[in-house]
């Protein structure tokens, strides 16, 4: 992926302590009291079956990545309505606030986790989501060929192997588009691929106008 300038740790933008605490409390409250729980193991296995089916159907990891992103986008477009109804949040004033809400409320509400927001760009238009425990990738080990770019002889995409949880990128992209934020979202690293961390990069492209329809995907 493209290199991205980041701020030093000391200058990472943050929401106020009180706002961060409120966001965390809101996420915890929704998770405890207003979210229907599903069995984590069943969820992981069901998602694994979906990925396995896509791999079998397309026989091309780059295309599987694309299909997972598209599925996630369509899910995100619909999930945002439930998210807004359950959280009753006002509109975020900055992209920094948006990132905090994604981490402390969005991920908590739907996956029961609170990832870390870090690696902000100097213009605060890009950040990373670090996921310590990914419920989608429980019980998963990728084959060696899923970790590598396709050989040039196959005419495959330059995309690097399989990003197993790429559906999350689509969910974020679709949900944020519904609140008028056009973003690029992509995986930078994944522990399934023997990286040190699972990192998703989110880049703000532009703020949409109220009357611009969502992408037709």
Automatic annotation (TrEMBL):
<dbReference type="GO" id="GO:0030008">
    <property type="term" value="C:TRAPP complex"/>
</dbReference>
<keyword id="KW-0931">ER-Golgi transport</keyword>
<dbReference type="GO" id="GO:0048193">
    <property type="term" value="P:Golgi vesicle transport"/>
</dbReference>
<comment type="similarity">
    <text>Belongs to the TRAPP small subunits family. BET3 subfamily.</text>
</comment>
<dbReference type="GO" id="GO:0005783">
    <property type="term" value="C:endoplasmic reticulum"/>
</dbReference>
<dbReference type="InterPro" id="IPR024096">
    <property type="entry name" value="NO_sig/Golgi_transp_ligand-bd"/>
</dbReference>
<keyword id="KW-0256">Endoplasmic reticulum</keyword>
<dbReference type="GO" id="GO:0016236">
    <property type="term" value="P:macroautophagy"/>
</dbReference>
<dbReference type="InterPro" id="IPR016721">
    <property type="entry name" value="Bet3"/>
</dbReference>
<dbReference type="GO" id="GO:0005794">
    <property type="term" value="C:Golgi apparatus"/>
</dbReference>
<dbReference type="Pfam" id="PF04051">
    <property type="entry name" value="TRAPP"/>
</dbReference>
<keyword id="KW-0333">Golgi apparatus</keyword>
<keyword id="KW-0813">Transport</keyword>
<protein>
    <submittedName>
        <fullName>Transport protein particle 22 kDa subunit</fullName>
    </submittedName>
</protein>
<dbReference type="InterPro" id="IPR007194">
    <property type="entry name" value="TRAPP_component"/>
</dbReference>
């Amino acid at each position: 992926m493209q290199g991205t300038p980041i701020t030093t740790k000391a200058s990472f933008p943050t929401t106020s302590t009180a706002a961060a605490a409120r966001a965390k409390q809101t996420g915890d409250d929704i998770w405890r009291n207003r979210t229907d729980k599903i069995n984590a193991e069943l969820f992981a296995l069901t998602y694994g079956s979906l990925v396995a089916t896509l791999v079998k159907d397309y026989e091309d990891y780059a295309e599987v990545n694309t299909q997972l992103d598209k599925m996630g986008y369509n899910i995100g477009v619909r999930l945002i309505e439930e998210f807004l109804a359950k959280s009753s949040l006002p509109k975020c004033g900055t992209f920094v606030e948006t990132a905090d809400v994604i981490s402390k409320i969005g991920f908590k509400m739907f996956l029961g986790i609170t990832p870390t927001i870090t690696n902000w760009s100097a213009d605060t238009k890009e950040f990373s989501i670090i996921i310590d425990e990914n419920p989608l990738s429980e019980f998963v080990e990728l084959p060696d060929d899923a970790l590598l770019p396709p050989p040039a002889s196959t005419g495959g995409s330059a995309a690097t192997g399989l990003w197993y949880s790429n559906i999350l990128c689509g969910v974020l992209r679709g949900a944020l588009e519904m609140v008028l934020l056009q973003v690029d979202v992509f995986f930078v690293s994944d522990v399934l691929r023997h990286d040190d961390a699972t990192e998703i990069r989110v880049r703000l492209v532009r703020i949409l106008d109220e009357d611009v329809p969502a992408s037709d995907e």
